[in-house]
UniProtKB/TrEMBL annotation:
Pfam families: HTH_25. It comes from the Bacteria. Residues 79-108, 147-188 are annotated as: Disordered. Residues 99-108 have a biased composition (Polar residues). This is HTH cro/C1-type domain-containing protein. It comes from Listeria floridensis FSL S10-1187. Residues 8-68 form the HTH cro/C1-type domain.
Length: 188
């Protein structure tokens, strides 16, 4: 145990708090609180977090953290350089996703493909919708025109035999033309 850990532990007990209570107040894991009380800072995730956790612990048990750091300066790990390094690495991590580069220094073609893919899919979908609309508007109107042509081609033709009897028959125009030809050959 260290003097810093003893002082914080005594302050915690004076307030009537258990480690579980302190964990809920500070949102610091219990194992880190125990490590602070024991002075085992190697368990901590880093020097910056060690200082931050000690400060939170002290504030939760109503101990002045600045005075605590000044009093136990030799026990508390210094973290000035680590803070600067962490801030730089955070900035680099935030900037890295913005420009992804391959080994050659050129932008990755795969990431460009995935950037363009949603736009391509939307364009294909719009073209599909336009084709469906075209089909129902123009293709259906052409079907109606074909039906009217078929209705007009079915004509009633009156044919006279040599016997003098007349029959009415409904045929296509090609059949009517063939019968007319046959009739002309009979009469000549």
């Amino acid at each position: 145990m260290t003097e810093l850990g003893d002082k914080l532990k005594a302050a915690r007990r004076e307030k009537g708090l258990s480690l579980d209570d302190l964990q809920q107040i500070t949102k610091i894991q219990k194992r880190y609180l125990v490590a602070i009380e024991e002075g085992n800072y190697s368990v901590m995730p880093g020097k910056f977090y060690t200082r931050a956790f000690i400060k939170q612990y002290a504030e939760a048990v109503d101990v002045d953290s600045t005075q605590l750091f000044a009093e136990f300066e030799s026990e508390v790990p210094e973290s000035q350089q680590e803070v600067v390094d962490q801030e730089q690495s955070r900035a680099q991590k935030k900037a890295a996703p913005l420009t992804t580069h391959s080994v050659g220094g050129q932008s990755s073609s795969r990431s460009r493909f995935f950037d363009i893919l949603p736009k391509v899919l939307i364009a294909v979908f719009i073209l599909f919708i336009l084709f469906i609309i075209w089909y129902f508007v123009f293709a259906k109107s052409n079907d109606g025109a074909v039906e009217t042509q078929n209705n007009n081609s079915n004509q009633t033709v009156q044919v006279k035999d040599d016997t003098g009897s007349s029959t009415k028959k409904s045929d296509d125009s090609s059949d009517a033309a063939a019968k007319k030809k046959a009739e002309e050959t009979k009469s000549s």
